[in-house]
Amino acid sequence: MATATHLVTPEDARADPAPEAVVVRFAGDSGDGMQLTGGQFTLSTALAGNDLATFPDFPAEIRAPPGTTFGVSAFQINFGSTAIETAGDQPDVLIAMNPAALKVNVADLKPGGLIIADEGEFGARNLAKAGYEAN
Fold this sequence. Notes:
Elements: H1 10-15, E1 21-29, H2 34-47, E2 51-57, E3 72-80, E4 93-96, H3 99-105, E5 114-117, H4 124-129
Parallel strand pairs: 1-4, 4-5
Antiparallel strand pairs: 1-3, 2-3
């Protein structure tokens, strides 16, 4: 089940102008479809007329055990209305499909960045595989 921890009011939406560029990182286990998801997001972004740069990040392991930190695969896209020359350094948005993906990537997130997590994957077993003691 997905839950929202903060809802944006119409006043909040008008208070800050839209950024010229946004960096989004999709992260999950190898085989979870992060490269495919990133590719589809890239296609949609390009069709909307945005400039973009991407960076696919594959793990060194051929097939690491699911839910472990050394098996995390990611795809990063920097897109916007201005000229984009790199895939970006720090994501504004991190989409983590499991605790291992969160652990590997959360330190890179910009201060005040947004985390979108699949909370259904944050059970005791997956938390332990990622080295977390509690949710």
